[in-house]
């Protein structure tokens, strides 16, 4: 091989290498822009929406509704013996509204969400009540449980449902004639969503419970 031929070969290889590098850089930038090679951080679980519902076992002219704006906020509420908090930690608000036809008045209560667990189209959450309107039930400072079924978009009547931890579903039978209905409710504890929604609806966004921070950092 002559010196001139060798120089031409090296120049050709250099040009080819430069072209491959440019092509790879361009492809990577294009893929990054399109998002195909980027792993997006999964969105957290949430329950949002407002709806009216009826009690299937008790028909009356009252109007009952829940409004939820609850979002997962894992490992943010340290507990005694659990300094990292729990994967079910959450934040947000719950508003309970009950129009009493007999008294012609609407009672409301608002609570601070402290726990949220979701499944596919389902969720349970709890909230500690921070405010009750005059004449409302004596639930200030208590934790209440709620469940939601997101029936999806449908024609006509909503397929959504809700459940809640009072009105006969959280009793502590003791053998007495009047079992107490103010039994404590643990975090994320609620019955199945048994009450059909009649107006409005809810959206449940499901996400798996994440591992502890120490595990995810390994």
Structure description:
With 218 residues, this protein is an alpha+beta fold. It is 17% helix and 35% strand. It is built from two helices and eight strands; from the N terminus they run αββββββββα. The protein has helices at 3-34, 213-216, and strands at 46-53, 63-72, 90-100, 105-119, 122-132, 143-149, 161-164, 195-205. Strands 1-2-3-4-5-6-7-8 form an eight-stranded antiparallel barrel. The radius of gyration is 28 Å and the shape is globular. Residues 1-41 have low confidence and may be disordered.
H/E series: HEEEEEEEEH
Oligomer: single chain
Termini separation comes to 55 Å
Q: Estimate percent helicity.
A: 10-25%
Low-confidence stretches: 1-41
Radius of gyration: 28 Å
| Average of the residue pLDDT scores | 82
Supply database-style keywords.
2 helices, 17% helix, alpha+beta, disordered N terminus, 218 residues, 8-stranded antiparallel barrel
Topology:
Blueprint: H1 3-34, E1 46-53, E2 63-72, E3 90-100, E4 105-119, E5 122-132, E6 143-149, E7 161-164, E8 195-205, H2 213-216
Antiparallel strand pairs: 1-2, 1-8, 2-3, 3-4, 4-5, 5-6, 6-7, 7-8
Give a short overview.
The chain is α+β, with helices and mostly antiparallel strands. Helices cover 17% and strands 35% of the residues.
């Amino acid at each position: 091989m002559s010196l001139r031929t060798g120089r031409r070969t090296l120049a050709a290889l250099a040009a080819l290498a430069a072209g491959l590098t440019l092509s790879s850089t361009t492809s990577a930038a294009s893929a990054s822009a399109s998002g195909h090679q980027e792993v997006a951080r999964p969105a957290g679980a949430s329950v949002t929406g407002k709806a009216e519902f009826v009690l299937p076992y008790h028909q009356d002219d009252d109007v009952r509704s829940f409004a939820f704006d609850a979002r997962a906020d894992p490992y943010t509420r340290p507990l005694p013996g659990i300094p990292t908090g729990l994967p079910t930690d959450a934040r947000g608000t719950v508003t309970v509204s009950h129009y009493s036809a007999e008294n012609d008045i609407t009672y409301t209560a608002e609570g601070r969400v402290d726990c949220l667990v979701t499944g596919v189209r389902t969720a349970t959450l709890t909230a500690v009540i921070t405010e009750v309107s005059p004449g409302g039930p004596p639930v200030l400072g208590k934790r209440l449980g709620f469940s939601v079924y997101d029936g999806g978009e449908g024609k006509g009547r909503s397929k959504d449902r809700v459940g809640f931890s009072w009105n006969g579903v959280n009793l502590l039978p003791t053998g007495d004639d009047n079992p107490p209905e103010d039994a404590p409710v643990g975090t994320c504890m609620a019955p199945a969503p048994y009450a059909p929604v009649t107006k409005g609806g809810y959206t449940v966004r499901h996400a798996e419970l994440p591992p502890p921070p120490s595990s995810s950092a390994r």
